Amino acid sequence: MIKFSEEKLKKVSEIIQRYPEGKQKSALLPVLHLAQDEFGGWLDTPVMDYVATLLSIEPIEVYEVASFY
Q1: How many other CB atoms are found less than 10 A from the CB of residue 24?
Q2: What does the H/E/C string look like for the chain?
Q3: Rounded distance, CA 20 to CA 26, Å?
Q4: Measured distance CA(69)–CA(61) in Å, rounded
């Protein structure tokens, strides 16, 4: 199962809190960078799905950003 370490989850929470309620998608790029560091240097589909769940957004929104960058 894909899951951030407790340290990374705390960092994700701090990043999300930087943005207003309902604007958690703004945290997507920094959270994807953390995910890339945590899960072997690249983003496979289960990792992107996990990030979508954390940010309460649709997985396609994560795929679009990850594939663009």
Answers
A1: 18
A2: CCCCCHHHHHHHHHHHCCCCCCCHHHHHHHHHHHHHHHCCCCCCHHHHHHHHHHHCCCHHHHHHHHHHC
A3: 9
A4: 13
Q: Write out the two tokens for 45.
A: 């589909």
Cα–Cα distance, 40 to 56 (Å, whole number): 23
pTM of the model: 0.92
* pLDDT category of residue 1 using cuts at 50, 70 and 90: confident
Query: In 8-23, which positions are buried (b, 16+ CB within 10 angstroms) versus exposed (e)?
Result: beebbeebbeeeeeee
- For residues 22 and 16, give the distance between their C-alpha atoms in angstroms, rounded to a whole number: 10
